[in-house]
Write a structure and sequence with these properties.
The complex is a heterodimer of chains A (340) and B (446). Chain A has 340 residues and is α/β, with parallel strands linked by helices. Chain A is built from seven helices and 16 strands. Chain B has 446 residues and is of the alpha+beta class. Chain B is globular. Classes of the chains: A alpha/beta (340), B alpha+beta (446).
C-alpha cells in the first residue's frame, strides 16, 4: 500500500501509526470513513522496554544494588544491538530521594513517568517488556512506600500505596496515574485492542503477577505451550511464539544482609544483594552464547545468586508460553509468517 | 544528599587498607555475596579460558561420538563472569554449542529442538519419522551418561524419567524424546537428554549445577582478566564494576577479629549437642568465611571443607547443618542412596528428639509445647522413601512478626539431628566488642 505521495506504507518503520481513511465517491456525494485497523507489522527487530520502579528507596543499600542490576538488565539487549528503552518509574513521597517537596509536583513527576511507560508500551517497535517493581494480580505500581522495614522480620504492610489526593491545576484535575493495570494493557491485545500489538516476551517482576490475567492483553495465555501450539494455523490470533514470566505469590527480599525471610507459606527469600544479582545474572545468561533457554537462564541465575532455593523457585515462578524461548528467537520480522 | 553519603561510603570501602594481622588471616574472608565479576570482554583472558576448557569439549565429543570440535570452528565464546569460575559457553560454526562448568560439559547439537530452531522456515529440517521407542531412547541416554563416566545414581537417571510427547506440526512430527530426570530435593530437572528418534542420536545433554557430586576442579588459567571497562558503551561492565564494591558494609578489621569468636561459638554448639564434628575447628578447615554487617551486628556464613555449615548471627550460632543434611543440600555432594534407610523413629519421637535438641542450646521459655509443623521430602515416582523430617516451631504464629523461628532436621533412621535453626530474637544481645567498630570508616564529601 502506498500513500498519496507514493510512500510505501507497509511497515511500522515507515509509519507506525498509519491510520487510513477510505473515501467513497458516488452520485449521492462523497463519504469518508476510517478503514478498519489491523495489527501492526512486527518490527525488523523487536525492541525492549526495561522498566524499573524506584521502590527500594526506603532502604538505600537495596536501592543502589537494584538500580545497578536494572542497568545490567538494560545492557542485555543493548550489547546485542537491539533497540531498548530504560524507563525509570518515579516513586516516593515529597522530600524522599529525588522527589519534589511540592506534593502536586511529586504527583506530576510520578504520573509522567508512568505515562512514559505507557507510551513506550504502545510504540509498535517494542515487543519485549521487563518490569521490576511493585505488582499484583491486576495492577502494577503505586505512588509511595507503604512498607516499613523491620529487620529481622522482613517487610510488613503499613499504610496506603496510592496518593489519594486530587489537585486542581488550573483547569486540570490531577490525580494519581502511577500504575499500570492489565485492563489498560488490553489496548495492546491482538484480539480486542485498539492498538493491536502482541508482545514476544513479558517478565513482570513483582508480587503476584502470575495470579491475574496479565499474559492475556499481551497476546499470550496462562499456559505452557510447545511450538506445535504456535504453528497451529487454526489458532486465533496467529501470533508468533512468546513467553511470559511472573510470580504467583508476593515476592520478598530480606532486608538484613545474608539473612533469609520466610513467608507464611515457608518460601524462603534471600537478601537484597542476591535479589538484585538474580536479575542481572538472568539477563547475562540468557543474552549470551551457550544457547540457554529462558527456563535454563532463570534456573541458573537462581542457582548462582542464591536468592531463593530451588524448592521456593519451583513453587513461586510461573513461565508461560514457550518456556524454551531463546533470547532473540522469533524476534525478527521474517522469523514468523504472520506480520504481527 | 543521601546519595552523596552513599557514594562516599562505597569509595571508603574500596580504598580500605587491610590492617588486620594474626592467625585468623590464614584464609581470606569473603566480603562479596555473589562473587567478583570479571572482564569477560578481555580477548586475551577469554581466549585463554577457551583454550583451557576446549580439551574437555573434545573429550566429551569423543565419548558421545560427536564430530570432533576444532578451535577454528569457534565463532563466539563467553567465559563465566565470576572470578575463579573457569568455564563458559562456545558456539561453533557447525551448529554445535558446548559449555563447561566446574568440570562438567553439556552441549546442543545442530538438530536440537527447539534450541536450534532459527525461525518458522527452519521447522521442516526437524521433521522426521521416529524409528525407536521411548524405552530405547531412555536406554541410549543412560548409556551415554555411563560413557561420560557418571553413575546413573549420581545424576538421578536410575529413576523413572519424564518424557513429554513428540511435537507435531500439522501432519509432521518432530521426533525428539526429551528425557528429564528430576532432583528429589527440589523437583527441578537434574539431567535432561534429547534423543533424535529418527537418527537415533543424542542431540543435547545438560546436567544441572546442583549435581555437585559430578563436578570437578576446573583447569588453571594463568592470564588474569584486565579491569572491567568503565564506559557508557558497555553498561553491563559498568554495573559489574559497582557490584564488585558490594563489600557488605563492614570494617574488615572487625571481621578478622571475629573469626576466633565464631569458631569458638561453633565448637560450643557442637559440644552441647554432642555432634560428631572433630574439634577444635581451625582456620585451615574453612572453605568459606563470609562476613557482613547486618545493621550494626555481624552475620557470618561458615562453610567447612568437610561440608558442615554454621551461621553466626548477632552474638551466637543460630544455625548449623552437618554434611549429612538432606534439606538445603544443593551445595554439597549428594547421593540419594546415602539417605535411603529404614524409618526407625515415629513422627512423635522425631518431634521429641527435636525438642530435646533445642532445649540443650536454647534459653528456657522457648515456645516448644505447641504442635509443630512437620515437613517431609518431596515424593517422586520411583524414589524410595527418605526417613527425614524437618520439625518447625514458629512463635507467634499467623502473620505477626516472629520472635522465635526454630527448625530441626531429624534423621529418623539414625535418630540424630542433622540441622538446626534457632532464631530467637529475645536471646540477641549486644554484638561482640572486639576493640574496633563494626562500621567501616567513612569519608564525608565536602
Amino acid at each position: 500500500m502506498h500513500d498519496d505521495l507514493g510512500n510505501l506504507r507497509d511497515n511500522i518503520e515507515a509509519d507506525p501509526f498509519f491510520d487510513p481513511y477510505v473515501t467513497l465517491t458516488a452520485a449521492a456525494g462523497t463519504i469518508q470513513r476510517p478503514a478498519p485497523l489491523s495489527a501492526l507489522d512486527y518490527p525488523y527487530i523487536g525492541g525492549w522496554n526495561v522498566a524499573y520502579q524506584d521502590s527500594h528507596k526506603f532502604y538505600p543499600n537495596a536501592r543502589v544494588k537494584t538500580i545497578e542490576a536494572w542497568l545490567a538488565v538494560v545492557g542485555g539487549p543493548s550489547l546485542k544491538g537491539i533497540p531498548n528503552a530504560a524507563i525509570l518509574l518515579k516513586y516516593g513521597k515529597t522530600n524522599d530521594v529525588d522527589m519534589s517537596s511540592d506534593p502536586l509536583q511529586a504527583m506530576r513527576d510520578r504520573n509522567a513517568s508512568w505515562d512514559n511507560l505507557k507510551d513506550h508500551l504502545l510504540t509498535p517497535l517494542f515487543r519485549n517488556f521487563y518490569y521490576w517493581g511493585h505488582g499484583s494480580d491486576f495492577v502494577l505500581g503505586g505512588d509511595w512506600d507503604s512498607l516499613t522495614n523491620e529487620p529481622p522480620y522482613g517487610i510488613h504492610p503499613n499504610g496506603a500505596e496510592y496518593d489519594l489526593n486530587v489537585y486542581q491545576d488550573g483547569t486540570n484535575t490531577v490525580r494519581t496515574r502511577a500504575f499500570l493495570s492489565s485492563g489498560w494493557c488490553y489496548l495492546l491485545s491482538p484480539i480486542s485492542g485498539e492498538d493491536p500489538h502482541p508482545y514476544r516476551f513479558v517478565f513482570l517482576d513483582g508480587c503476584s503477577t502470575a495470579a491475574g490475567d496479565w499474559p492475556v492483553p499481551f497476546g499470550m495465555q496462562a499456559e505452557t505451550n510447545s511450538l506445535d501450539y504456535y504453528t497451529d494455523t487454526n489458532r486465533f490470533p496467529y501470533v508468533r511464539p512468546s513467553a511470559f514470566v511472573g510470580w504467583n505469590v508476593d515476592t520478598y527480599y530480606s532486608a538484613g544482609l545474608n539473612s533469609t525471610y520466610t513467608d507464611k507459606d515457608r518460601n524462603q527469600w534471600g537478601d537484597y544483594q542476591k535479589y538484585a544479582f538474580f536479575r542481572s545474572q538472568w539477563m547475562f545468561l540468557w543474552a549470551n552464547p551457550g544457547s540457554r533457554t529462558l527456563t535454563q537462564a532463570l534456573e541458573q541465575a537462581r542457582d548462582t545468586s542464591g536468592w531463593i532455593s530451588s524448592a521456593t523457585y519451583e513453587k513461586t515462578i510461573r513461565i508461560y508460553g514457550l518456556r524454551e524461548l531463546l533470547f532473540n528467537q522469533f524476534n525478527q520480522r521474517g522469523d514468523w509468517p504472520t506480520t504481527p | 544528599m543521601r546519595k552523596i553519603v552513599l557514594l562516599a561510603f562505597v569509595f571508603a570501602l574500596s580504598v580500605m587498607p587491610a590492617a588486620a594481622k594474626g592467625k585468623a588471616k590464614e584464609f581470606k574472608i569473603d566480603f562479596l555475596c555473589c562473587g567478583e565479576m570479571i572482564n569477560i570482554w578481555d580477548p586475551a583472558y577469554s581466549n585463554a579460558v577457551l583454550r583451557a576448557v576446549f580439551p574437555y569439549f573434545k573429550d566429551f565429543a569423543k565419548e558421545l561420538n560427536l564430530p570432533m570440535p576444532k578451535l577454528e570452528q569457534v565463532q563466539n565464546f563467553v567465559p563465566d563472569n565470576r572470578k575463579g569460575e573457569i568455564g563458559g559457553g562456545a558456539e561453533l560454526t557447525n551448529g554445535f554449542s558446548f559449555w563447561f562448568y566446574r568440570g562438567v560439559v553439556g552441549f546442543y547439537g545442530p538438530h536440537s529442538y527447539p534450541t536450534k530452531i532459527k525461525n518458522y522456515w527452519s521447522f521442516p529440517k526437524f521433521y522426521g519419522t521416529p524409528r525407536m521407542t521411548e524405552q530405547e531412547a531412555i536406554a541410549l541416554a543412560r548409556k551415554m551418561i555411563k560413557k561420560l563416566g557418571y553413575s546413573l545414581e549420581d545424576v538421578f537417571a536410575n529413576f523413572e524419567p519424564t518424557v513429554p510427547p513428540f511435537v507435531s506440526i500439522g501432519t509432521n512430527t518432530i521426533p525428539r524424546y526429551r528425557i528429564q530426570w528430576r532432583d528429589p530435593r527440589g523437583e527441578s530437572i537434574a539431567t535432561e537428554i534429547e534423543v533424535d528418534a529418527e537418527r537415533k542420536t543424542i542431540e543435547s545433554l545438560r546436567f544441572n549445577n546442583s549435581l555437585v557430586v559430578i563436578q570437578r576442579p576446573p583447569p588453571k588459567v594463568k592470564i588474569q582478566p584486565s579491569e572491567l571497562p568503565d564506559t557508557p558503551l558497555n553498561p553491563v561492565a559498568r554495573s559489574w564494576r559497582r557490584m564488585n564494591q558490594w563489600t557488605n558494609d563492614i570494617n574488615h578489621e572487625y571481621a578478622y577479629r571475629l573469626v576466633p569468636v565464631v569458631l569458638r561459638a561453633a565448637e560450643d554448639m557442637v559440644r552441647r549437642l554432642g555432634l560428631d564434628l572433630p574439634l577444635p575447628i581451625t582456620p585451615n578447615q574453612i572453605r568459606r568465611f563470609y562476613c557482613s554487617n547486618n545493621g550494626g551486628s555481624p552475620y557470618v556464613d561458615l562453610f567447612l571443607k568437610n561440608n558442615w555449615k554454621f551461621v553466626y548471627r548477632v552474638n551466637g550460632i543460630t544455625q548449623f547443618s552437618t554434611s549429612r543434611r538432606f534439606f538445603d543440600s544443593e551445595d554439597i555432594p549428594f547421593r540419594l542412596k546415602d539417605y535411603v534407610r529404614e524409618w526407625k523413629l515415629t513422627e512423635d519421637q522425631a518431634v521429641d528428639l527435636a525438642r530435646l535438641a533445642v532445649k540443650k542450646v536454647g534459653r528456657p521459655g522457648l515456645h516448644l509445647d505447641g504442635k509443630p509443623n512437620v515437613f517431609r521430602p518431596a515424593e517422586i515416582k520411583g524414589v524410595p522413601p527418605i526417613p527425614r523430617l524437618t520439625i518447625q516451631w514458629v512463635y507467634p504464629g499467623g502473620d505477626k512478626p516472629r520472635s522465635e523461628w526454630i527448625e530441626v532436621e531429624v534423621d529418623c533412621n539414625r535418630g540424630t539431628v542433622e540441622a538446626l535453626r534457632l532464631d530467637d530474637v529475645s536471646s540477641w544481645g549486644a554484638p561482640p566488642d572486639l576493640g574496633v567498630p563494626i562500621e567501616p570508616d567513612r569519608v564525608e564529601l565536602k
